[in-house]
Amino acid sequence: MSEDARLFPNWQPTWAEYTAVCRHLGLSPQPSLYARLLAHLAGQALARPLSPWARHLCTGQRGRLWLCCMDLYTRLFLPTHPVRYWLNAVLALHECTAQGHAELSRVPRGRALWLTLPLWGLRTLGQAILAMPWLAWRALGYALRLRWRAPLQRLTGRCVLVTGAARGLGRDLMLAALEHGARVVAVVRARDHLPAPLDTLPARAPVTWVEADLALPGALPRALAAAGIEARTIDYALLAAGVKVQATVLNVEAVRQTFQVDLFANVEFAGWYHAQGGQGRLALVSSMGRWHGMPGTGGYNAAKAALSIWGESVEMELTSRRVLIVEPGLFASGMVGSRGLQGWLSVPRRQVAERILQAVVRGRRSLRPPLWFAWLTWGLCLGGRALRARVLTAARGG
What we know:
The chain has helices at 15-25, 31-42, 52-56, 64-76, 82-95, 98-104, 111-144, 168-179, 219-226, 252-275, 298-317, 340-345, 349-362, 371-382, 385-395, and strands at 6-7, 45-46, 159-163, 183-188, 207-211, 236-239, 281-285, 323-326, 366-367. By secondary structure, it is of the alpha/beta class. The chain has 2 domains: 6-146, no CATH class; 152-395, NAD(P)-binding Rossmann-like Domain (Rossmann fold, 3-Layer(aba) Sandwich). A 7-stranded parallel β-sheet has the order 5-4-3-6-7-8-9, sandwiched between helices. Strands 1-2 form a two-stranded antiparallel ribbon. Strand 3 (159-163), helix 8 (168-179) and strand 4 (183-188) form a beta-alpha-beta unit. The longest helix is centred in the first third of the chain and has 34 residues, at 111-144. The protein is globular, with a radius of gyration of 23 Å. The chain starts with 5 loop residues before the first strand and ends with a helix.
């Protein structure tokens, strides 16, 4: 892989995106082909780094309109874009199966052909008509957010430690850091049980895997020492691991486990990092839930409140240490449902990961994506405890 190449993994489609691609192409989704698609894309490297504009086209929600416009735009102007690889790879894999070949070779005959040809033309024209305002809207967003793009170039060659790298936000942080040229120390509970696409990362990917069960006190510093990781080599530490146990707040063991992973594991790492002479920046992934209680997961909200306050205290006590405290709202993850109000309010997890990387490289102290959700939360808090109890209990279905 050339020095300027970028690994593919953070551009891999989710299952939902894969099924949307299949519907767009008139194919039936096949789980076995999806697994092969992930394995194929994970081993690819882009011939050259993506331009900021090409990267911007893939931010935000990836719905049917996005897919329709990206299909046409990449076909005409960006043939090496990762989304073009998606589409071509899906076609190639499905064509190698009997079902896929039958679906791809299915064409109207006789009179039906002459009726279908104009419909194909109208469909292409409709795509072009839809693509023009969509591209204009994307260009406007690109111009407004242009000032955020340069800092991620500073990640090239830097060492980034990520906890909770096996799944969720930690996984996306790791893949985004790889995509921008960083070397990653990925902390996972068990290396042998990584979910896709991490189990298919190419051997040349600059990742050092460290196994540590953060539910055990002192596990992370011991694992880093055993792996020969020196604190001075870590430029950025993104502490994203977290658990949300569904249990009553009176369940002492559940609350203790939550605090160990969500708070004390971070305290242990920071103590080791400071004592060993680490000079890089820390990013603590807290939550907007730290501003209020929540029935059923109150231990999680309490642990995140403690994490945010502890992060502020680190800066007060160690004045040379700059800490980024991230308090995201709802984003797509295993902790948040994908249906109903929660799913509608959620923002793409990859977008949150990019924002965190931008913020920590810029040296910011706080980040609350998306900001409108922060204002919504604060407004709810100002309404008083009784209002919060009614709204949040209803949101939990209690």
